[in-house]
What does this fold into?
Amino acid sequence: MALGRIPRRLAVLISGRGSNLQAILGSIRTGRLDATVALVISSRPEAPGLLRAREAAVDAVCLQPRDYADRDAFERAMVERLLAADVGLLCLAGFMRLVGQPLLRAFPNRIVNIHPSLLPAFPGLEAQRQALEHGVRVTGATVHLVDADLDAGPIVLQAAVPVLDDDTVETLSARILVEEHKLYPRAIQMLLDGGWTIEGRRFVRRA
Ligand code: GRF
It folds into this structure.
């Protein structure tokens, strides 16, 4: 399936710290990513990422699931905001919600996520702890398109990070995060540049 042309207007969806949001904004500022962050949506009012967005003069709103009857109603409210902001690509960056049909239907193959492991290993919460406890020697970060399943859509880019003998969850997470901050803007640029198709589960670049 061809991805087609994606407008270079991003929405970044967050629930917390927002360091990937910061990395995206930084890459735009330095010209490595040719895009605009049109809107930031946080699912939590206390998310530090909201402050980062406002400091960068980016439109930022908080939409809380508990203010809506159910997930569909919550997502329909998000879709309304996203369409009004004329967004082409949704970038999940620490957004602690499973994505459902209203968003997937409104943005087919236009939702991307970053996860701190080499998927399909260690989906879900605390991926860095899972990797450490499993004893893998290499883990990393994955940028993937989002479908209805958790951390499961076609993989766009990955970066490997070795696990060191004296790693703790904190030290490993910190080294993975450094890679995330480089990987996510690169993956977004690739998606926006087009020339890609999805064949089965594979994200394939046409010659
Ligand atoms: C990152 O580790 C990301 O991979 C995961 O959640 C974390 C978000 O961090 N999905 P931040 O809010 O971008 O700092």
